[in-house]
Amino acid sequence: METDIPLRDVMVHEVVQGDRELNVMEAAKLMKKYGVDSIVVLNNGEPVGMVTQGDMISELVSKDTTPSTVKLKDIMTIPLITASPNDRLSSIAKRMATERIRRIPIIEEGKLMGIVADVDILSVSSEMNSILTELIEMNVEREILGRGNEGEGMGQGICEKCGSFSNDLVLKDGLMMCETCKEETEREVE
Question: Which helix (H) or strand (E) holds 61?
Answer without folding.
Answer: none
